[in-house]
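just leaving the lab so this will be short. below you get a single protein, a line of residues and a line of whole numbers that encode the local backbone shape. id like you to explain what the token line says about the fold, in plain words if possible. thanks a lot i owe you, the record is right below:

…
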Amino acid sequence: MRIFLIILTVISLTGCTNPFEDYPGYWIKENTTRLDAMLIQEKTDQYVAYQLSKSTNFEPTGSFIVLKNNGEQLIFNGGWGESVLALAEDKKTLLLNGDSYKKTTSIQFEEVKSLFFQQEEEREQLRLQQKSERKKQEDLRLAQQQQELKEWKIHNEVCNKLGNEFFKKENELRRNKYTDENMIKIEQNKELYRKKQKKMNCRIRGL
């Protein structure tokens, strides 16, 4: 009789075992560069899933998805059709649509979340630093262009002035009679201004 009662008790306990008791908890998606997680909770005899993302600060706020329970499996429907939430033999890996999620504690999840936001802040600081550096380089390039333009204008004015001086002197000499002496003066004037334009890196028309 005692053996029969023990067997009956074991059978009774086995029959009452909840096949979904390992589902509730935090699950972090594997093989991804961004933090993607899910929280499964049991609420009034049903299971619900929160999709945790950066937009919700990885908190279980807002709407949740009620998991369909067919007695043997929990089924997830995120709007693109039904998918089975398959629990691996180790009870710590969850498979959904070809993706695997690793179970973690709430404390561990908070640590992961904290590290994620720290890295986000570091990336943002680096982005701002790079943006500032690019702006400095652009400002420097524009300043150099403006300086070059200013120098070109000054140089152009100097060359124009030199050219006007040459033509004025040239015209004065050509008003005189075309004697050998006068022609020599004209050539001497040209030679003088050729030297000046070379020294000042100018180009005067007619020389």
